[in-house]
Fold each of these.
Amino acid sequence: MNVRHDHIAVYTFVVFLFSFSLFCYGFFPLSFSPSTKASFDELPQTIGNASFNGTDYKPRISRAILMVIDALRMDFVVQEENFQFLNQLLSDGKACLYRLQVHPPTVTMPRIKAMTSGAIPSFLDVILNLGSPEMQLDTFLYQMKQRQQKTVFYGDNTWTNMFPNTFHRRGENTDSLYVNDFYKGDQNITKLLNMELQMYDWKLMILHYLGLDHIGHVEGPYSDKVPGKLQEMDTVIKTIHQTMDKWKQKYYTKPLLIITGDHGMRDSGGHGGSTHPETIVPVVIVSDQCAKSEDTFLQIDLAPSMSILMGVAIPYASIGSMIDPALKMLHRRDMLYALYYNTQRLASKVEAILRDTFQQTEVHKSYEEAKNLHQLFLQDTTDVSAYKRALLLYTSVSKNLTQLLISSYIRYDIVFILVGTIMALLCAAIAITQLLQHDTTATALPLHPKLFPSINCVLLSFLLLKLLSFEKESVQEATHTFHAVIVLLSVVYFTLWVILTHLLKGVKAPAVMWFLDGTSFLSPFIWCGVGFHCISLASSSFVEEEHQTWYYFTSSVMVLLTLKQLNVMNSTIGVIKHTKTDPSLVEVCKEERSIFCVASIAFVCIHVLVRRFNQTGDKWQHIPDVGDWLSKDEHKVWLSITMFVGLCYLVYQICYMAGLLTTVLSMTASMLIYYYRAASGTVSIFGLSASNSSICLTIFWINLVEIFFIGFLPMMYRAIVTRTTPTRSSELYSNCIIMVALLSALLHKPHNVLLVGTLFATSRFLTERIDRIADDKYCSVMLKVITHYWLGKTFYFYQGNSNSLATIDLNAGYVGLNKFDIIRVGLFLTLHTFSAPILSFLLLLHHIFLDNERDVRQQHRSETRNNIRERILTLLNVLITVPVSFFLAVATILRDHIFVWTVFSPKIIYEYFTVWLVLIQVILVISLLPKPMSSGV
């Protein structure tokens, strides 16, 4: 049986995507958080010989207001000019400020889950953040509803999606994800708040203000709008506090106001990562019965603390400790009871995990000592030393128990991880061996597996999978479906092994000689770069600063190509001088060499400039960059000039691949992009005013449709009227690239528009030099594929992206939208975030098509050109499967590493999304480079 190499490449990539999915399923399980609900029956009745029959577990406050200010950073609160009233309360001893540590991912939905349930959310909740499914865990909100305590809510509709039947009254923002709403949503919340403060039928009111977070996403934490927004929040706090004072004087009640943030905000404005500004948030307890503390508490500590204050059972899933300084209002007896209640819960959870070994730990000994001191205090409530010692021990023990539970809270499914990782490594091995085949002209691989070894291989795979899944099978009874899945996986493993063994036969020593081809040390350098990037993924620092790797290799390969071509020019001039040639020809060659040198230096300078536009990574993220300087209002003129130059440069690059009409439409679309940014106030039109942005965007979309039909209609005309089927419609494909480029320019920040044109120019720069120095067609294709892959990665980081989820620019998803639309927002965010890899690959195919057409005109019949599609697919497999599979193996080994959730997990999510995008690229290669076309060139 003969199998074509391109089919093997496609099959390998599909299996790799499947294995990656298996790995993610095992690596990102939902947190071990049962839906069991707590009840009052679990309240401790005795401790040793002492009884709690006289303890009255009841609410300690009359009513409470939980005010959540989205993306509230710690440094925002301590700025007195922004929170004058709140800082006055803090200085007068009428409020206490504490630090809360937030666990990643620092996005809203997981943080709400942590605050209300006391459980650590799964990392995959960052993806569920857009949908916000109904909460199944036990929460203090559920417990309050069981005790007939009414709760009202106003703010982010994430709460109403998570708790659809919990609130007595509610008023949610229907477009909470619409980041361009700075004021309207918050003003509606305040208006409803003023009405609700006149009501007396609720026990807890929750407010969630979004304006600060939206300003951060669009303009960053240093925007001139931030102080005004913080002052607005301070006014709301003042209004609530004044009303609470009236309640105290009139009804002698004990109301409580709690102010906190769900997460922080990084210096660049986003969130979702693990930097200090994102993970440290304030919590302010507005009460004169609280104690100051410099300790750092956990956000999950809010749930048990709120439960004690409201007099309800602590949620079953809670693993948080108490914020004991905030509970100063409790009497000594009640304070020890609350601490014992929560510590007992945590100890039982730890004991269920550690079993008998827990009895021998120092934590258990301290816990027993705390209980003994607690008994002594109950016998003599005047024993202050026993109370203080028990208080310290309970606090220390509960925090230690919390840390133990956090470390064991996320449970990996090691079966899926191992199966996925091994399968991915096999796919990577196949990709490498397919690339190293001795016979590069062969289009098919003869597969002749022997019967008995094949049966043994399948049986061995089946037995190994059964052995790995023994624990999973013992938990639940095995079904026919379970065995069918194991058989299917065994067959997949068998086919991969058969393909690999047959490919290994074609790998010989001469097959590696193309590393040392006529391009001197360029090819070895490129493959060493691929290998270094793969190995660098084993380091968390290299993952955080991955852009440095791409910056170095892309810059180096451009310099090497330039030097190589300069060497070719010098050799040409040397040959011409020694022949009887017109001296003017030598002068022309020298002039061409001088122009080439000047152009190359200018090109490198452009890259140095655009590299400084956006700081990325983790180490230097806080350092101001050119984009930050241009974004300031006093530099709007320079930003306008930068965007204008970027659009002009893009149109200039479009001219190389477009006709006159398409160029005119592209110029019009560029003018509309500039007008849209001027209408939004980002740039200026030098004295003129722009008001209506919707009309210009409508015309922009019409322009894109016209550009598409300029290429589509001639192709249809040739197919229908003249009944000829062209090999490829170059005009249609070029126009599609132009459409993607113009749409990317629309979505980019104004100063990043220059990157789109620079990407076009760099692609042409690399292609022209490769065409001049490559020794053969295969070497040319190899260099173009790898350099364009590097180019996409480099410009991806030029744009300001990183391996942190916080650098995703949500503002790009709402260009031209007045409300949240998950499909359009998702498409815009994808195109904006991955615009560089997408455009780079489209440009690669464009240059491959041009080479093919040039060969057709010259009537070349090269055997290498007959399998261009196979070579591209094989190279894509190597560039994707090898580093990713290696990274999966590293993540498997380091799954208990301290940076697994802050560095490795976000990288895995990015890579998984990238692999799906590469699947689209594979489909494009198959559809746009069909076998008949390749063989016919």
Note: Residues 473-477, 861-865, 932-937 have pLDDT under 50 and may be disordered.
Amino acid sequence: MSSKFHTTISSDNIVIDIVEPHPNFPKIVQSILTQVVKQKNLDQLREYGGVEGLAFGLKTNLKHGINGDVEDISRRKEAFGSNTYRRSPKKNLFDFVLEALREPTSLIVLAYAAVSLGLEIKQHGLKEGCYLNPNRYDGGSIFVTVFVVTAILAIVKFRQNRQFVKLSEVSNNIPVDVLRNGGEQKVSRSEIVVGDVVCLNIGDQVPADGLFIWGHSLLVDESSMTAETNPIEVDLSHTPNNPFLFSDTKVTSGNGRMLVTSVGMNTTLGEIITISIDSNKHTPLKYKLNKLTSSIGKVVLSVAFLVQVVLLVRYFTGNQKDMNGNAEYNGSKTKAYGILNSVFDIIAAPVTILVDAIPGGLPVAMTLSLGHSVKRMMSDHAMVGKLSACETMGFTTTICTDKTGTLTLNQMKVTTFWLGQDCIEQKGISSVAASVVELLHHGIGLNTAGSVNMSASGSEFEFSGSPTEKAILSWAVSELNLDMEGLKQSGEILHVEAFNSTKKRSGVLMRNKEQNTINLHIKGGAEMVLALCSNYYDVSGTIKVLDDDGRKIFDGIIQGMVTSTLRCIAFAHKQVPEEENEEGKNQIEENCLTLLGLVGLMDPCRPGVKEAVQEFQYAGVNVKMVTGDNIFTARAIATECGILKPNQDMESGAVVLGEEFRNYTPEERMEKVNNISVMARASPRDKLLMVQCLKQKDHVVAVIGDGTNDVPALKEADIGLLMGIQGTEVAKECSDIIILDDSFGSVATVLRWGRCVCTNVQKFIQWQLTLTVATLAINFVVSVSTGEVPFSAVELVWVNLIINTSGALALAIEKPTKEQMEKPPVGRTKQLITNVMWRNLLSQALYQTAVLLTLQFKGEEFFKVSANVNDTLILNVLVLCQMFNVFFMWKLENKNAFEGIHKNYLFLVIIGVTIAVQLVVVEFLKKVAGTERLNWWQWGVSVGFASVSWPIGWVVKWIPPVPEKPFLLHPCHPPISHTPSS
């Protein structure tokens, strides 16, 4: 067994690494094998004896694969590792607590608490200084306040993270086709081992690093590695040779097999994903919420600072009095220690205001609403891959959808066949010349990515491939008596050009063994293939020249089929002289072809598509169809689905070709993109370009697709939705939500739940801001006028956290309603807090402020109660006002706030339980909350003041419509990032 040497030379010394092969594979050194592929080192590959030599060293049979038993798999994993990646360490709950404590507001409060606690301990001793006194603004109380709030926030984020990790683990478990023990089988991507022979087809994701064995026209998108979007051809027969395949790249064309040489952390991808990186991409809702909480924090900090300045001025000017009515500050007569204590007592009042700046309930409300919606969406046949996708869907303003498999069933069937200018259904297939039928056999049977197999019972044929391929093969077998086995024996394939989404056609170069001739067969979009033809066959097998008049006739035939919503496919061929073929298999010009025939395939629309499109339009969401089909088919299907109005002409700009859109100047694209409803003959790049333009126009874009050609647009869109049954694995990886039943109506369901999340969050924001505005105003007025704060830190924790949590529960569980779909989408730039919300919350906040200030200054005198009882009465009225107010916050605009509330049992239970807990706090938790017991009269007064919220809310909603221009805050405009495209 020979050792391998790695030499590293630096400025100071030479380091020689001795690498030993594994005993079970003595001819292979993993580190060198890894570098062969990573560095595309052909010389090193030749030293191993090429792909065959490597396969021998890895004990792999290139035709039958590895043995694949348990012992073989175990040896390979031991020698070369498993196909898994190290991920960033999972955050525990303590990590999220530290993250929450690093917030600026929390740091300010904690800094005060630490100093205050030190002074309290020095002044009163350790036991008394650490005692949590709800009537004193001591450091201990502040510590408890901050830690309770941050703990709740940390738990919420921790649970979100756990759910995201679980979803990621599920999505990474992709099945892969491999050859083991002579048979093809599916194994999980994580179970791939070095030496495996992997079968690759269009749309597949390469599961590991490896080397090309054989295949046809294998093109791979390496953009995940190199950022280059042009597909790379992988082959051994061309110059220069490029047999190298990299993990996580995508097969965009062709098929083949690869020998796995590196897995997991030894792959090129393993170097990049040493630590998983969270994109931290802000959704429109998160961006708006971050801006809102930032604004609230700034306002509260400003008020706290202003109160601080006023109180310090009062103190040092001698206007601050002690309990005996004497000035607390007497110039030089006051000791430094007394000044220090007084200053920190003054700081305590604004610190309680800062508690308002810690948004305790908002993350809870958002998480509860998202979790509830995601759970319900699963029962409605939609699997959410990212929690943020649900909220983003609620902001969607434009939906770009594919046609085949999305709007239609993708269950094709040949219904029409034209040969020359004759419809064969009328004459019968027996009227067609045998020579033409033979050419059709070659053009259909050899130029296909599908296959024909006999069923297990031997009584019928089974077809595989795309829906189009299966439909054409089924028709050829049943109508043209196609014999696939005999065809393969009579014809030799020289070169295959797999279907190309840009050219909209596929081709095959084949040798007819019986006639010893070489023919090029082309199949693809009818008008594109027709443009390459100079002649055509008639029914008798005679070749006729395709002149201008003939082209007009064929154009009319194609348009007639398309008008009937048929997908039109053309077949053409030309005989290639031997000397022309010798110039190079890929250099044969695709022109001067002879048209063999046209077939029309029916792909009916999915049930419920038209109703779903109408629902989107009713909700103010634009629906655009972007398809690779010809313009006539696209227009017909769009009209049938309701995307286009009947008789809407193309001159209006609603229907364009992908090439036309691509050739617009950037200014023209930005000007016309809003008006486009249908884009036909669109390439993947055209779809991507449209999504980018729409996002630049401030649209929130959702893309619906099912194929690999949709991947660039799915990744670029704000939210990608995939038809899960038809969808390819690559497309699934790039999607945010997977529609499990492939129903377009389920997309409308996702939109309804997204709108519901946004509305629930808006309702809670309205409710929380009402509380924030009221408590902020009361704290400010009372602090400035008396030098004291009416609410302690403990009381604010109860009001601002516990009450808000119950509000989050109550407001986050409502189901989607018709009213939510009647309003236009919020989009990217509209204000989250509407003027209607400002009207509702300011009216309630002003009422609460007026009532509580009256109680603060006149409550003791009017109700003949002590100061402590009056403070408890103020707290009780504030809490009950929020509980009564939540009924009107439950409906943002409906005047009848109680409509349907008797059906929402959970809402009523939550409110009832919260009021009951408030009763317990007031009556039985004096030592903890610092409250005094209230009698029946005082409870009646509290309920009376709180119940006035109902008539106020009802009257305010009768105010005439408010202007749409944003009030107080400017529209939010989150930054838009784009995926680079060539």
Note: The chain has a mean pLDDT of 78.
Amino acid sequence: MGEISESIKKCIAILKAAQSDTEKFAALFMVTKLVKGKDCNTTAKKVLFEAIGFKFLKKLLTGTNAQDDCPPSVYKSVALSILTCFCVEPELATHPEMLANVPVFLDIVQTSDNDDYDDNLIIVSEAYTCLQCIAEHEAGQKALIEVGAITKMSEIYSHQSFQTDEALNILVKLVSRYGPEAWGNDPKPFHALVNKIALDFATDQSERKFELATILSALLYSCNKDTVLPGSSDETWPQSIYKALHDVLTSKIGKNQRDPALKLAANIIDLLGIEWTFNDEENPKKFFLLLLQLCAIEIRMQLEDRSFKQAFANADLVTACFLVLESSINYMASDQLDLEQKEKQSVYTSLKGAFNAVVSILTKVSNDKNRDKLPDAEKVFVCAMVRVLVAWLAQETTAMRDQVYNLLPFMFSLANDSFHAYRARKLAEKNKSEGEAMNTDVSLMGQIDLLRLMLPALCHLVVEDKARDITLNLKEEDILYEAMNFHWSIVHYKKPPIPKSERLKAKKPEPELEPQVLEDMKDSRAAMVSLCNIFMNLTVLAPKVVEESMLFNTLLKFIFNNLPELKSIPENLVLHGHLAVLGLLLLKQQGASKVKKNDFSICRYIQSSIRFLWDAYMVDESNDPTALVVSMTYKENWGEIADLWFLGMQTLSGVLTIVPWISEFAIESGWAEGIAEMLAKVKLVEILHNEYGVPHDVATESGANFLRAFRARPDDETYAIHEWPAHLWRNCLPKNYRHIAKNISAEWLKLRFKYLALTADVIHLLESLREDYLLGLITNGPSRAQWQKIEKLGLRKYFDCVLVSGDLPWEKPDQNIFLEACKLLSVEPRHCIMVGDKLETDIQGGKQADLLSTVWIPLHKDDSESDLPDFTIQNVTELPDVLPNSPKLKRSVSNIAVC
């Protein structure tokens, strides 16, 4: 046994030789004395522990071998007395037997209010000692978490059981180690615990008040936000903490009291938002302004005339103040706070003083030749300073511009390193989720993407000549393009394809994405919008660089390839608009030489861009067809995209003059008739103005009047079919231009049938469908006008039957016109599929006729919940994706038709 003394060896021998629990229990009194001796080293304690055996100690703890002449508390006390001696040794504190019986210790401390312990509170105290020793080690912390120690310790403190501070200390240690994971998905223990501590914090007038502030900070910092936030408004702790902090920070206090109060304020603001500071009904701004001033002053006190090392010594406090300032700045930028001029001046002065101190320290770091060798923790503190500074710069402040320009290269260097580390971490996490081995060596720098945080400030900075020159000289656009690709990989989410055999079956609800995934997607959308704004500013203000740079050509191709993927996802509307307009600006700047007419990606991009511009306004929503109104789907975000829309329209005009084939493509591409009509109207106005000298405003008004008249009455049988449009033009043009009515009518008819013509891909679709389906065409409108359209476009050869409502007593949505088509095709309605672009006629009529299914191709987004289609597609060429497996289905039923 080596280093074990003779007395301990003798004791071990007695323990092993014991024939009964009574003999073994007697020997424990010898163990108690020996284990506290100087010669009882770690090795001796381990051997003693194993000689006793935890099973025997557990018997004593649970009272299963209690004798009539000896109360159970005696056995418990002896066992715990021995265990507290053993627990001080790390090897024994984490011994499997010790960890396996953590629930026994928890049961003792959780029932400390029982009558059993009234006369012997030392038992509870010793059980806490064992738990505290176990909680010092990672294996012990894990064991405590696994048996629900968080919930139990929360209940102990909430119910004011004996020795609640010990329970609280263990709990804080656990949540600080495991963070949100420690709390699980049930917010009740957290709320109950924090309600009680916050009440104690608000009412305690001793120095313990500030110990509680530190504990509250740790608990708020570690909580599971997803579960805690939804019910926090119904709890008492937000108001209790507000009251206590208000009282503390409006009193004369010292540094030891102010520091924990400011840290707690920062943590609760980080959790609940800056709005929490406006809890005073009489003067809601008072505490907000006080807190902002105190944090600005604290930053100056900690940073002014200090070295970086001195500033870093109080990094936790300074970072907490940074958080308050950043939240305050972002809130004030939202224009929700009505400040008087005097208050505005006071806030600006405070902030400028704080940021002067921040810039001063950052300048010292940037000038240090060893700046690249800083430990990770110090780099993170530097990142925190840059983060709060760029929040200030994002508000277009002109303060300290020269100092900021000098810092930009250092800030870019730091941001680029941070971005690459963060991207590596995200990639590693993705690989882990896909089952690949994960490199766990991720630095603290990988926890934050500083470049992402710089983007809003950079939008403003690149407008300034000096900052833009610095950005371009450092080739920062290359990193920004990398960031664009990275954030696109997060934003772009493709749903798995539905097997053909499942397409006509009842739809199963798709699994929802994880909240963190949705949050990451939202943040990356915002990042891409900022990146678009930066690239737009560079494109407009540095045209020569853009024209000569391969990077910007690569960026344009990125937009060509990816913009169409954003369609029909409402959350992507703002991003869709920014990418579309950035592409137009690049297209205009780089000219026709970089754009090939036969590049399909360019055609898809142009289609998506014009789709964005077209969908913003609708004619049908107004009683006046010449007046456009913002469509419902754009209204929510119109404040963000109104200026963008006008820039897009202006830029598209410029693009059409530089790349003329795009306007031809726009007309020939076979999009929804409304889009083509709008383009044709623009073209007509150009013809009237350029070829016939009609003033632009008169040409615009005449074109609008003609389209309104034609839509109201597309045919009049008293005129020849080709003469009716000319008659309408004569009525819509001013008297001195009526002589051109016949010519402009011919131009209009030419454009009308040109933009309505079927494209090659649609013709191919129809020819392919006819191999497996019967096809029918149903159209509403006057007989002559509609048949003229059908004949001019050569549609009859693609359809097995054609119905025009003008020839019949019904029109869509009357079910009879659909049933008539089924009759002519010799199919039953339940074997027929309706494909249309209008909910109120096509889809509603198909539903009323009890057709097999309805497929909607929306001209505009529609929020209506009535008569919802079975399927929605964005282009008719996507129709095969939602049709049944045609050869198989055709064999299983007599006939199937698509109308």
Note: Residues 401-433 form the longest helix (33 residues).
